[in-house]
Amino acid sequence: MNILAFGKDGQLGKAFQNLFQKVPLASENNIQYIGRNQCDLSHAIALNNLLNTSKPDLIINAAAYTAVDKAETEYELAFAINAKAPEIMAQYATKHGSTLLHYSTDYVFDGSKDGPYIEDDHRKPINMYGKSKAAGEEAIVNVFTNCSAGQYAIFRTSWVYGDGANFIRTILRLAKEREELKVICDQYGVPTNAGWLAQVSLDLVLDLQDNLRKFTSGIYHAVPSGKTSWHELAALVVQTARDANIALKLKPHDIQSILAAQYPVVAPGSANSCLDNSKLRLALEESGDMSKLQHWNKAWEKEVQSYVAGLSRDGLI
Ligand SMILES: NC(=O)c1ccc[n+]([C@@H]2O[C@H](COP(=O)([O-])OP(=O)(O)OC[C@H]3O[C@@H](n4cnc5c(N)ncnc54)[C@H](OP(=O)(O)O)[C@@H]3O)[C@@H](O)[C@H]2O)c1
Q1: 242 vs 84, 129, 145, 237, CA distance in Å?
Q2: What whole-number distance in Å separates Cα of residue 89 and Cα of residue 39?
Q3: SS3 for 101?
Q4: In which element (H, E) is residue 219 found?
Q5: 3-state helix, strand, coil in the chain (%, to 5)
Q6: 159 neighbors 192 (Cβ within 8 angstroms)
Q7: Residue 259 has what pLDDT?
C-alpha cells in the first residue's frame, strides 16, 4: 500500500509520524510525508502531479490553513488549501479507488446549538476559516456522491494539542511570565490529543494486519468524551504544571474568567464547540475488534495531564 500523508510539520502530521514509528507498518507499505516544501497545497497543478506520480492507496490530509484570524483577510488562500486541495484529493481517490482521510473542525457550526453537535447538523460557519473548512467538507462529499470507487472519512475535531503551537502551550508560556491572566469562560468544547486523533483515524480504516478495510464513508466526530471551558482547561494545565514542580508565576485561582464578548478577536469563536462522538465509537464497535475501543477509555483530563507532564520531562515548559 502507498500512503501519502500531508501536513508533515503540523501537530497532527507529526502525530502520524510518531505513530508509524512506534508501530511500523509491514515493509510492503510505503509512506511519504509531505510538507509545504514538497508540495504547496495552494498549487493545484503541483498537487495533481504529486498524486499522479505517488499513486497513493491511502491519502491522509493532515494539512490545513489553520490561522483562524488571518483567514479573515487571506480567505482566498484559506479556500485554496482547505477547500480546493481536498477536492483534488477526493477526485483522485474516486478515480483510482483510494481512501481519503481528511480533517475538519467544530468551526463549521455557529455554536448556537443547545447540546453537542451531531454529524448531520446543518453547517453554519461564522468566520472565514470555518467557511473554508465547510467548503472542503462539501467538496469531498460532492465528489464522492454517486461514485462507487474509493472511500473517505472526514474527521471533525476540536481544540487539538500535540507537537506544535496550541492553547495549552500558550497558557504555560504566559503562566511563566504573568501573575494574572484572563481566560474565556463561556466557550465550551473538549481538547483533543493529536496522537489520539491519529490513532482513532487509523482504527477506523485499517484492520489488525494494517490492511485497508471497508468502512462507511462519511463525516465522523473524532473527539474524546467530555466538556470543559477554556478557563477550566487553563486552570487544569497550570495546576498540573505546578504539581510537576514547574516554576510558574501564575496560580490557578489567579486566572480570571472573562466572557467571550469582552475579549477582542478578529474572527469570532464558537460558544459551543461540543461534538457528539457516538457515531465513530459505534463504527469502531461494529468493526468487531474491541481493542480499538481501548483508546476511548482515557479521560480527556488525564490526556491533558500526561501531555503537560511530557512537556515538562522534555524541558519544553
Ligand atoms: N489545531 C486545532 O485546534 C484544530 C481544531 C479543529 C480542527 N483542526 C483541524 O485538524 C487538522 C490538523 O490540524 P493541526 O493542529 O495539526 O494544524 P497545524 O499544526 O496548523 O498544521 C497544519 C499543517 O498544514 C501545513 N500547511 C499549511 N498550508 C500549507 C500549504 N499551502 N501547503 C502545504 N502544507 C500546508 C502547515 O505547514 P507549515 O508547517 O509549513 O506551516 C502545517 O504543517 C486540520 O485540518 C485542522 O483544520 C485543528
Answers
A1: 45, 35, 51, 9
A2: 13
A3: strand
A4: strand 218-221
A5: 45, 15, 40
A6: yes
A7: 96
Q: Is the CB of 105 under 6 A from ligand 1?
A: yes
pLDDT digits (tens, 9 = 90+) for 113-130: 999 999 999 999 999 999
Q: Rounded CA gap, 215 and 206, in Å?
A: 9
Q: In terms of DSSP bridges, do strands 218-221 and 30-34 run parallel, antiparallel, or are they unpaired? A: unpaired
pLDDT of residue 208: 83
Q: What is the pLDDT of residue 77?
A: 98
Counting as low any pLDDT under 50, the low residues of the chain are: none
Residue 220 a catalytic site member: no
Render pLDDT for 222-267 as a digit per residue (tens, 0 to 9).
999 999 999 999 999 999 999 999 999 999 999 999 999 998 788 8
| Per-domain residue ranges of the chain | 2-166+191-226+274-297
Q: Establish whether residue 144 lines the binding site of ligand 1, counting it when its CB lies within 6 angstroms of any ligand atom.
A: no
Phi and psi at residue 204, to the nearest 5°: -75, -35
Dihedral over Cα of 296, 298, 300, 304: its sign: negative
2-166+191-226+274-297 architecture in CATH? 3-Layer(aba) Sandwich (3.40)
Average pLDDT of the chain?
95
Element at 2 (helix H, strand E): strand 2-6
**Cell numbers of 224, please?**
474524546
Q: Determine the atom of ligand 1 nearest the C-alpha atom of 41.
A: 32
CA of 186 to the centre of ligand 1 (A): 26
- Determine the Cα–Cα distance for residues 276 and 263; give it in Å rounded to an integer: 27
Residue type, 251: K
